Amino acid sequence: MFLLRLIIPDRPGSLGTVATALGEVNADIHAIEIVEHRRENGTAVDDIVVDLPPGVLPDRLVSACNGVPGVEVIWFSRYGAGGGLHMDLEAVEQMTSAPADAIDILVEQSPAVLHADWAALLDGTGSEVKVALETSATPEFGTVAEKWLPLDKATTMAAPDQHKGLAESVLVVAPLESGRRVLVIGRRGGPEFLGSEVARLSYLASLAVTIRATA
Q: CA-CA distance, 208 to 95, in Å (whole number)?
């Protein structure tokens, strides 16, 4: 299973042309999500999850997409989250079914929701910043997280260049119960988190706090 993030012309038929090109290399499309409309230049950013049959090289996916006029592949990787791309509602459903665990559920589900590699809940309400919860593959933070707090709103965050592990990731962060309890999500190697993805995380973080308060 592979995930492609594409810039395509935002006009009727563009997505169908891409789908046809992928079909010509025997790719089976599992899900498509419009991540962002860029009305200022008439393009859209789309994520497409595809499956390839044995013997077909993954590079053919990129070649097929780049062969479509006006289409650019900005990210290509294996996709390990499973299922479709519409994970937001599934995360909300899990949170509402177990309100007391809503924040923990958001931390665990956020890598799949935002097509990322890892997530961690940082707690800086005490004398030092601690990792309260983390998913697999989360790197060590050391003392760098202390510089991020307090946090007012969801935003992207620049990873420190010389920090082992974090330097390889692009980051997005969102406050939870307070500006000193934050959710950090990382993608190794990119792409950068888009404004629409930051907005989605902000909404889900606020919703998790609200759901948790009903427990």
A: 7
